[in-house]
Amino acid sequence: MRAWIAVLLLGVAACGTNADAGGGAWKPRGDVRMIVPFSAGGGSDLAGRAIAAALEKAQPGLKVSVENREGGSGAVGYSALLGKKGDGKYLLATENAILSLPLSGQVSFTRQDFTPVAKLAEDGGIVVVKKDSPLKTCADVVGAARSGRVSVGMSGAYGVDNVIFTMIEQKTGVKFQRVPFESGGELVPAVLGGQIQVALLNPGEVIGQFRSGDLRGLCVTTDKRYTYPEFASLGTAKEQGIDVSYVQFRGFIGPGGLDEREKAYWEQAARGVTRTAEFQKWLKDNYLQQAELYGADFGEYLEQLDTALAPVLKKSS
User: Fold this and answer.
1) Which residues, in sequence order, are bridge partners of residue 53?
2) What is the SS3 assignment for 127?
3) Nearest C-alpha neighbor of 250 from the set 101, 50, 32
4) Least confident segment among 2-16, 59-73, 178-192, 285-299
5) Residue 203: how many CA atoms within 13 Å on its side-chain side?
6) Looking at the chain, which terminus has fewer C-beta neighbours within 10 angstroms, N or C?
7) pLDDT, tens only, 209-268
8) Sign of the CA dihedral 71, 214, 144, 232?
9) How does pLDDT run across 254-292, given as a tens digit for each residue?
10) Burial letters for 81-108: b for 16+ Cβ neighbours within 10 Å, e otherwise?
C-alpha cells in the first residue's frame, strides 16, 4: 500500500508542474501569451506576430497567441508583463522602449525587472514626407527647423523616434515640434493627411507607400545605406552632414523571476526561430537584418545600449 501511495504522490507532484517525464525539463502547459506593447499595424506588432508564428513552427505543439496592450508609449504592455513575475507562459515582443521608457523617468520598472531571452533582428529608420513636400533631404528638414516650425510624428513619446530626433536636435541645435502616436501604423496616414510634416518609420511600414509614390524618403538613420533596391538611393543622415545613426532591435523577453529551466526552454526555443521560413519571410518582407543574441549575451547588449542612451534621454527630459 505504501508503495502505491508513493507512486501516486509522485504522479500528483509531476502533474502540478510543467516538467516533462524526461527528468526535469520545463515546457509551458497550454497557450502562451505574447504581449505586443503597441497597437496593431506598426513594426512592433509585425515583429511580435512573426516571432510568435516562428516559435510555433520551431516548437511543435506550442501555441502562442498575440495580445496588443497599447498605451503609454509601450508602458502599459511592459507593466502587464511586470505583473506576471515568475510565469513562464508570458512573453513580450521587445525593442528599444525597454530602455527608453525607464530612462524617461515615466515608469517605475527597468530592464532588470525582466528576463532577456533573445535579440533576433535590427532595422533602421527612414525619415519620410508626403510626395508633394518641399523637403528633399534630412538636411532640408534641419534647415526648415532653423527658420520655422517642423512637426515630426513619433511612434510613442519615448521610443526610437524620440531618440533619433533628440540626437538630431543635439547635433544641430534645432528643435522639432513632436506629435506622438501609438504606432507606426498611425504615422503613415498622419503624414499622408498633412497632420505632421515628417515621420520616422521602419522600411516595412512604408514600402507600400514608397511603391505607390505617396511617400518619399529623405534619409536613413543607419550607418550605411540599405542594399535593398527600394531604398538603396537614400543617403544616410551622416552623408547629409548630420552625425547621427541609430537602429532598433527586435526580440522578446520574459517576465522577471523565471527559474533556470524556464529560461533554458525559451532560449532554446528562440534559437530555432531564425531557422524557420516564417521568420526569414518576415525579415525579407520588412527589410530587416538578422542579428542574434541570446540570454546573458542579450542582457549584456541591453546594459551597453542603456549606458549609451542615458545621456541622450536625460538631456531630452
Assistant:
1) none
2) strand
3) 50
4) 2-16
5) 26
6) N
7) 999 999 999 999 998 898 889 999 999 999 999 999 998 999 999 999 999 999 999 999
8) positive
9) 999 999 999 999 999 999 999 999 999 999 988 998 999
10) bbebeeebbbbbbbbbbbbbbbbbeebe
> What single-letter amino acid sits at 246?
Y
**Separation of CA 271 from chain center:** 18
**DSSP secondary structure, 5-27, as one string:** HHHHHHHHHHHTSSB-TTTS-B-
90: Cβ contacts below 8 Å, ≥ 6 apart: 32, 33, 35, 81, 84, 254, 255
The 8-class DSSP code of residue 73 comes to G
Q: Is 198 helix (H, G, I), strand (E, B) or coil?
A: strand
* DSSP H or E stretch at residue 170: helix 160-172
User: Do the Cβ atoms of 188 and 155 come closer than 8 Å?
Assistant: no
Q: Which residue has the cell 542582457?
A: 299
Return d(Cα 140, Cα 218) in angstroms, integer. Answer: 9
Q: Which residues contact 213 (CB under 8 A, 6 or more apart)?
A: 131
- Give me 162's grid cell: 524620440
Which residue type does 300 have?
E
What cell numbers appear for 104 in the block?
524617461
Structure-block grid coordinates of residue 35: 504581449
Residue-wise DSSP of 171-223: HH----EEEEESSHHHHHHHHHTTS-SEEEE-HHHHHHHHHHTSEEEEEE-SS
Cross-strand pairs, 255: 114
Sign of the four-CA dihedral 57, 61, 62, 68: positive
Residue whose C-alpha is closest to residue 247's, from 309, 186, 176, 297: 309
Q: Judge whether 159 and 165 are in contact, CB under 8 Å.
A: no
User: Is residue 71 helix, strand or coil?
Assistant: coil
